[in-house]
Specification:
By secondary structure, the chain is mostly helical. The protein is 54% helix and 0% strand. It has a domain at 30-82. The N and C termini lie far apart (88 Å).
Length: 89
Amino acid sequence: MRDEYDFSQGKRGAVLPSPGKTRITIMLDDDVIEYFRTIAEAQGTGYQTMINRALRATVNQAKNTGKDEEPLTVAKLREVLREELIQAS
């Protein structure tokens, strides 16, 4: 080993870039992280990889339906029921 190293041209960050991936910081609930860690450990894979797969499946599902699904609310349910009752009469 050298007695002295020159880091003046050094750069921070990953040594090898990951094309198509972006490093972010995200806050997730503890129970969600624990779930993915437990499953990932049993399968021998990384929990971050599993979270990415779950997010990708959600994105693909939204793309396949052609639109993002709206959550069913009481107001929307009432609207649909009124339309159905009008058509039935």
